[in-house]
Amino acid sequence: NWKLTNYIDETIADIKQRVGDQKVILGLSGGVDSSVAAVLIHRAIGDQLQCIFVDTGLLRKDEGKKVMENYGEHFNLKIDMVDASERFLSKLAGVSDPEEKRKIIGNEFVAVFDEESHKFTDVKFLAQGTIYPDVIESQSVKGPSSVIKSHHNVGGLPEEMNLELLEPLRELFKDEVRKVGEELGIPHHLVHRHPFPGPGLGIRILGAVDEEKVRILQEADDIFIEELYKNKLYDTVSQAFVVLLPVKSVGVMGDERTYEYTAVVRSANTTDFMTATWSRLPYEFLDTISNRIINEVRGINRVAYDISSKPPATIEWE
Ligand code: XMP
């Protein structure tokens, strides 16, 4: 694709010219945008790029490990991985209000990123995976999730370091970002990942969050996503995940009575995330994930499927 390689070559030349021999830091989340931005910038300036990956403890199962493998080992990016899970969990202890949880997670993220970025000296640029829809969105007034989202995106801008912003994907739409990513050699499954909210599993565990619930949800979610890939359904839905309800119900396992949590499987189809329908996943598939989750995840004895559209429901539960 001539236009695409041309775009990549020009952008790399621009980055080289602008950055010179200065240092750049970038908050790598493992999501599509920050990952493509990181690999692109790395092509231009190599080890002058320092990535920071904050493990909030609210990420999907093994996310930190996978990011280090996919981008640290395979693409040779310099990644500073910060395990901040204890900080996040202790700040969230006993908090069940959704908006409060979002605020705590957002603020803590900024604090951790800010502290971490000060470990690196002589940094002149902060790189971000801002894409064109983010630029538009931040110019209009929207609901609380987009406020948090933009907060999250510009979040961590360490002010006293006086950094210049480097946003090489600013003019691209999502599908173009994916094409750039693939052209740069990032595997299909990584550039086609579903979006994942900044507050992470913190807003998919209803009510108060604790380590045990995070573990339970990570296991259940991992089974769902794994089966979606295995059954070639992942790319047919826009976003899919498991929600953990703090509701226990009675069940039976062998000769034992159980009294455990309820998991809700959520999958949505949408083009713009403003409206969405629930995915018509095959019954056989739902049966498979229900059985696997109940049999393999200790702490869950009941699985429900969310059949709500947006509006009036939202995609996330909090
Ligand atoms: P809702 O739940 O509002 O979600 O239908 C629409 C899309 O936005 C994502 N989302 C968020 N993303 N920070 C984010 O970065 C947030 O606080 C947040 N809340 C919702 C959600 O995952 C879906 O893709």
TrEMBL record:
Domain (GMPS ATP-PPase): give its ranges: 2-193
Question: Which EC main class describes this enzyme?
Answer: ligase
Pathway field: Purine metabolism; GMP biosynthesis; GMP from XMP (L-Gln route): step 1/1
- Is Ribonucleoprotein a UniProt keyword of this protein? no
Keywords attached to this Swiss-Prot or TrEMBL record, sorted alphabetically, are: ATP-binding, Glutamine amidotransferase, GMP biosynthesis, Ligase, Nucleotide-binding, Purine biosynthesis
Stated EC number for the protein is 6.3.5.2
Q: Which GO terms describe its cellular component?
A: cytosol
Q: Which GO terms describe its molecular function?
A: ATP binding; GMP synthase activity
Annotated ATP binding lies at S29, G30, G31, V32, D33, S34, S35
Listed under catalytic activity are: XMP + L-glutamine + ATP + H2O = GMP + L-glutamate + AMP + diphosphate + 2 H(+)
Assembly, per entry: Homodimer.
Protein function: Catalyzes the synthesis of GMP from XMP.
Official protein name in the record: GMP synthase [glutamine-hydrolyzing]
Organism, per UniProt?
Kaistella carnis
Q: What is the lineage of its organism?
A: Bacteria, Pseudomonadati, Bacteroidota, Flavobacteriia, Flavobacteriales
Boundaries of the shown chain within the full protein: 192 to 509 of 509
